[in-house]
Amino acid sequence: MMAFQEIAWVFLFPSPPQSGGEGGPGVLYPHKIRKNLSDEEGERHEARSEGLDVGIERGARGARQKARGKAKAVKWKAGTIRALFCMLASFLVPLAPSLGMADHDRPKRPPLWTPLFEAERLAAMEVPEDMVEDMVMVPAGWFLMGSDPKTDRAAGPQEQPQRLVYLSAFQIDRYEVTNVQYLRYVLATGAEWPPYWREEPFPEKIAWHPVIGVSWREADAYCRWAGKRLPTEAEWEKAARGTDGRIFPWGDEPAGWLKSNIAHSGSGRVKRYPPLANVNRYDRGVSPYGVYQMAGNVSEWVADWFDPEYYRRGETHNPTGPSQGIDKVFRGGSWNEDPEVARSAGRNAGAPDHRSYLIGFRCACDARGAINLTREARAEQR
Question: Which of 152, 302, 189 is nearest to 240 (CA)?
């Protein structure tokens, strides 16, 4: 039994311990055990011990090599993952602004760290020579306002009755307010960008398109900032049709694609979207006072609250519309509407905070040094 324990100890601990010294208590060493064995048994035992030492050393060396291999593999994988993540981040960060473009109904202002060089460059663009004279004078006098169903089959009940209305002299923008003009206002005041602009904020080729996606409140704020105001509904209609009650700014003949940007055949409107035009186009369709695009391109906000029964009140001198209401009036029709909507007497309405890609605006102001001829006009009417 003792011999077996001694042999088992040799196989379990083939090498002597590094401390405690030879002959320590309770420790058996192979060179002492061999004294108790026969020479033949001792040789076999020694050979077996040496073989076990070699096997253990080889196993340990293999384990160390395997551990080093695993460590290298883990280190390589970690480095590869880190490199791939950096590459992915460098690719996605520049795209972050464009990834947020799915929402087309919200204004997209540039991040605070983005310089406004392009916006400032666009805002500094020179006005084309044919657009320098930006306002026209509409003289004081009477004009036919509203629609007569006997002469206009598209006349709506909210446009009736047709009647004579007197207006004092005023001025109105010759052209609709453009993207460049509104951009100058935005940069000067920090106002919200229209929802159809982007970070650029728009391509140079549409710089002189009418601004769209502007609410009535925003249009009113712009006109006040410019030292003007929105035109009244009566002022807008007189500037559009003159004094003779014509259906369109150019007369009673139907709208043609050379006179207006309206949804009619031959306009080429399917080639781009939205198919807006520069505000100084369609000179064949100007009003009797030389005002551009009072029919088509975009509808235009005016100052008045909307009331479908308002015309029946019979207001005949500088009418300004109801004193309160829910919706504000817009006039003129747009590129996406039928010619009937773009008639000079046509009336539409929307909430003051409503924004649309079909609606823009222009401004007006009282005539400088205008003489109020109300008494003479009333005498003339009698």
Answer: 302
* CA–CA gap between residue 9 and residue 3 (Å, rounded): 10
pLDDT at 17 over 80: no
pLDDT tens-digit map of 126-169 = 777 667 668 999 999 999 999 999 999 888 999 999 999 999 99
With a cut of 90, say whether residue 236 has pLDDT above it: yes
Quick one: CA torsion of 232, 170, 311, 306, rounded to 10 degrees?
0
This prediction's pTM: 0.66
**Residue 144, φ and ψ in degrees, nearest 5:** -85, 120
CA distance 382 to 377: 9
Residue 377: name the closest of 22, 139, 133, 118 by CA: 139
Q: Which residue has the higher pLDDT, 38 or 23?
A: 38
Torsion over CA: 240, 245, 248, 249 (sign): negative
* End-to-end C-alpha distance for the chain, whole angstroms: 145
Rounded Cα distance, 368 and 34, in Å: 129
β-sheet with 364-366: strand ranges across = 135-138, 170-173, 364-366
The Cα–Cα gap between 49 and 344 comes to 114
**Which is nearest to 292 in space by CA: 73, 134, 139, 115?**
134
Tokens 């311990």 identify what position? 17
Measure the CA–CA gap between 363 and 379, rounded to whole angstroms: 31
CB within 8 A of 259, min separation 6: which ones?
248, 250, 282, 284, 285, 295
The DSSP bridge partners found for residue 168 are: none
Tokens of 74: 């883990």
